[in-house]
Amino acid sequence: MVKIIMHGCNGHMGQVISGLVEKDPDAEIVAGIDVADQGKNSYPVYTNMEECQVEADALIDFSSAKATDALLAYCEKRHLPVVLCTTGLSEEQLAKVEETARNVAVLKSANMSLGINTLMKLLQDAAKVLATAGFDIEVVEKHHRLKLDAPSGTALALADTLALAVLPLRLKLLDVGRVPQHDAAQLHGWVGGIDPAPEPVAGQQRQKAGVVDVVMGRQHTVDLAGGHGS
Hints:
Layout: E1 2-7, H1 12-22, E2 27-33, E3 45-46, E4 58-61, H2 68-78, E5 82-84, H3 91-100, E6 106-108, H4 114-130, E7 136-142, H5 153-166, E8 175-179, E9 184-189, E10 211-216, E11 220-225
Parallel strand pairs: 1-2, 1-4, 2-3, 4-5, 5-6
Antiparallel strand pairs: 7-9, 7-11, 8-9, 10-11
Helix pairs in contact: 2-3, 4-5
């Protein structure tokens, strides 16, 4: 039986994971940590992280970047492995993640979705072929207005995947921007040697021949756009 502490237990993903674990005979959430105990969980909820001294095999974190520093210190002090799913971390926090991982197991991912991780692999393979053929590559995401981090961790991870694919080819990369009126983050990888057109309105397609849309879910789209000769 794997014993889990759920950090951010009252949030959307905390509740999703709680529901999944309830159906798993080989796992149990033994405690939760959140800013308030809303009384909707079957396990004890601690509003002060240091007061949670329940024995566990791992901690799963779906919370806020504001809580990450204290969380990493807590897990390192207790030698408690952590699955870190919070995004929007600063460069300093990412460095702290690396430092913590030297002393305790840390699994960090910008997105735990099988679909998004498949998209990353498809993007890397496609970019290596299409970038050298003159295609422009653009990552566009759209979220609800309450999305805290934009560009999101997923969009930045897609951009990192793109960078790993095209930087060895010495192609141009990468402009990051946001279109507030549409609450959409845009990451442009203008890798084909064609100067970018003026900033597009989110959701509008650039008028080029040979556009290939790679869509995974309703929030993230990768456009690979080639000119008439591509």
